[in-house]
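> forwarded from #structure-qc
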């Protein structure tokens, strides 16, 4: 899910969609309007799920999509190698995520773990 907003209304620390990937805004710099054009904004952001840095330049009045990022909680059902099965605590849906060895240290069956969900993707918030 995503909503439409203007580039000029975005702030650092908020989220936006660049190349169909939800990204967290790191910095915004705005140029002054010139003789023949509108003010432009340069936005540097980092992908939430892939960690890739992206830049975006656009007029301040242009429309862009902002993803709806939800922080949820899930209970660990089972662990098999680096694949962990979770059950969402609100709607009781089951899903699996591949986790790193560092994250695996914090996970045990029956424990509640926070995670982030946006645009159909999930990531542990550890």
């Amino acid at each position: 899910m995503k909503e439409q907003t203007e580039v000029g209304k975005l702030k650092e620390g908020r989220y936006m969609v660049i190349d169909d990937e939800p990204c967290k805004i790191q910095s915004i710099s705005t140029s002054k309007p010139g003789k023949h054009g509108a003010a432009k904004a340069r936005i540097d952001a980092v992908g939430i799920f892939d960690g890739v840095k992206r830049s975006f330049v656009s007029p301040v009045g242009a429309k862009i999509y902002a993803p709806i990022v939800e922080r949820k909680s899930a209970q660990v059902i089972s662990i098999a190698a680096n694949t962990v099965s979770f059950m969402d605590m609100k709607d009781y849906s089951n899903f699996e995520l591949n986790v790193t060895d560092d994250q695996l240290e914090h996970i045990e069956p029956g424990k509640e773990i926070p995670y982030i969900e946006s645009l159909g993707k999930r990531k542990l918030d550890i």
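QC bot note: The mean pLDDT is 91. The chain is about 5% helix and 55% strand.
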